[in-house]
Specification:
alpha/beta, Collagenase (Catalytic Domain), 6 helices
């Protein structure tokens, strides 16, 4: 089967129409598709995939952070994997673990078996949400461009979608190394 580029649904809702258009212009100059494709190739994901990327504001990401992580504060990036288990082959301490029920079995909705995407169809990895104001603030604080910060967070989000977790030191270090190496592949 011929390798396909990842399908990316991009939404920008980070301010008024003029602000959104300015962000869209910045995004148009970045090669998100290539970076995401390189990220997936680097971690061994070769199947056809899609994901959604939402660039939003601090209020919206704060609401999501509160709802899904019980943290009432804005954050830079949130990832919402749709997979039941990681796609990547890496040491367990670098990956998020499938959710288990009280009996120790992998949890699924009710007693139904998990949906399995046939290999010839596209796999929806999930959603990445990034706060534009936080991107701008972090870039200024660190001293690099908003483009670099945004792309760094996109790679971070993709790594979470395919299975990486930064809650352990090993996972964090692995993700940071991958993020830095991948940004170099697009000249940043």
């Amino acid at each position: 089967m011929e390798e396909q580029d990842p399908q990316i649904e991009l939404y920008v809702s980070a301010g008024n129409d003029d602000e959104n258009k300015a962000i869209e212009q910045i995004l148009g100059k970045l090669n998100l598709d290539l970076l995401i494709k390189n990220t997936l190739q680097r971690v061994g994901v070769t199947r056809p995939v899609m994901l959604t990327l939402l660039i939003t504001d601090d209020d919206a990401i704060r609401d999501m952070n509160q709802q899904y992580r019980q943290q009432n504060k804005p954050t830079d990036v949130l990832s919402f994997p749709l997979l039941e288990k990681p796609l990547v082959d890496a040491p367990a301490e670098q990956l998020w673990q499938p959710v288990e029920d009280e009996t120790g079995q992998q949890a699924s909705a009710g007693n139904t078996s998990a949906f399995v995407t046939p290999p010839e169809l596209i796999t929806n990895l999930g959603d990445i949400v990034i706060s534009w104001p936080t991107v701008a603030k972090q870039a200024a604080d660190i001293g690099h461009s908003t483009a670099y910060e945004l792309l760094y967070l996109v790679v971070h989000g993709v790594l979470h979608l395919v299975g990486y977790d930064d809650q352990s030191e090993a996972g964090y270090q692995s993700m940071v190394q991958l993020q830095q190496a991948l940004l170099q592949t697009v000249g940043l």
